[in-house]
Amino acid sequence: MAVGLAITSQNGEKNNGRVTLYVVLSCMMAAMGGVIFGYDIGITGGVTSMEPFLKKFFRKIYLQMKSDVKVSNYCKFNSQLLTSFTSSLYVAGFFTSFLASYVTRVFGRKPSIVAGGAAFLAGTALGGAAFNVYMLIIGRLLLGVGVGFANQAVPLYLSEMALPRFRGAINNGFQLSIGIGALSANLINYGTEKIKGGYGWRVSLAMAAVPASFLTLGALFLPETPNSLIQTSQDNQKAKLILQRIRGVEDVQAELDDLTKASSSTSKTSEQQSFKIILERRYRPQLVMAIAIPFFQQVTGINVIAFYAPLLFRTIGLGESASLLSSVMTGIVGTGSTFISMLIVDKLGRRTLFIVGGIQMLVLQCIVGGIMAVHLKDHGGLSKGYAYMVLVMICIYVAGFGWSWGPLGWLVPSEIFPLEIRSAGQSITVAVSFLFTFIIAQTFLAMLCHFKSGIFFFFGGWVVVMTAFVYYFLPETKNVPLEQVEKVWKEHWFWKGIVGKTNESYDAL
Predict the structure, then answer these.
(1) What one-character DSSP code corresponds to residue 483?
(2) What is the reported pLDDT for 254?
(3) Are 357 and 400 in contact (CB under 8 A)?
(4) Angle, alpha carbons 50-334-417 (nearest 5°)
(5) Where are the alpha helices (DSSP H) in 107-132?
(6) CA 378 to CA 71: how far, in whole Å?
(7) How far apart are the first and last CA of the chain?
(8) What is the DSSP secondary structure assignment for residue 281, as one 8-state letter?
(9) Distance (Å, rounded) from C-alpha 307 to C-alpha 321?
(10) For the segment 359-389, what is each residue's pLDDT rounded down to a tens digit?
(11) pLDDT for 236-246, tens place per residue?
């Protein structure tokens, strides 16, 4: 239905340049924003399965897990206070995303990254030193502020620094960093769970200071993106010098002209006007994607695995240590599959990976749900054979997410908005992501208690909807320069009736 297009720059030449070491190092440092996000996701699921942590902060759950045989396997961890610990970060991230939009637009991408790292550091200190549940939750609120700034700025930074033909690979580095952060957290949890004295959870929470420190200090030395320099300071000469440095060539005039033209309609647009402009009919496709893609990313069910994998594995009968080790395995699979996505996304395109990954996730969710429906009752666990089969199936499911909706859920929204509304569009994407992450995190344990094995079929139904949505409504954006992505909507079978068809020519891929 939707076709891929390669749009040339205004003078008829494709943006030239190469991937320079300067760009690679800058993007690696910026992508540390993904590491802190992934670390928090991974560490939370681990510490909430540690008995000393539950005994200190959630004693009712601890006693229920240890002694109450009358409680269903699916309901042992059902606690609104426990889910509040997990989901409070996303409440803070939701509200922070709008402030981060203003900072990112007015002051640049770099200050937002620095602010994110500093707030995350403060939250880490509170969490590691917590002596009651309120300190834990306040610490997580600060972590949410940090993640809100990082998730707003980092995907934009990566997309704006990358060459069009490598933008997918470089931007997918954000999801790869999330995977690395989550994997690191799972490994640390597996080690700290064995610490005698019951304080391993403190070590796990405090270790988040390591990537947060790298991000905060390293971001001070990052260059600002040329797009942001032109938008915030109108300093075309400095933007040209940065372009020459990051592209590795002297002739960057065509790309600079595109950036200057895109900025000319942006310079007098305030943040409030950006949110008003994004509601206009001409930007309707981008607005729909900014809401639909992060929503669909959350209802894949991946956060069931990311947040609660150790609890889920304990539900099916694995022990504490085995549950944490199983989370390490899923983390390795997720990180590896995201790396594969980096290698192929600019060759196969966004749509292909979305659709293939969606089909893969659907099949595996049905298999896992079927096994649990038949073999896991309210009391007792799965046999060892079925427990490990569920683990393998979940790993394959995670791989499907890792090369599709995981990285592409951040890539596509970061590359579809024109400069005048790019920061506002990204803030909507981040806010929607945090909102539905909060809803899933806050309700999952209750849903698991009531739906039981049906929870996998619930998320599988959403995967069907989102895969069909991509097939019919998302055009291909691979190899399209950022400042010309707007044109793909005018050639799409559906969206051209809303935004109007372009008369400009395209070069077929």
Answers:
(1) G
(2) 84
(3) yes
(4) 115
(5) 109-129
(6) 8
(7) 16
(8) G
(9) 17
(10) 999 999 999 888 888 877 666 666 777 777 8
(11) 888 888 888 88
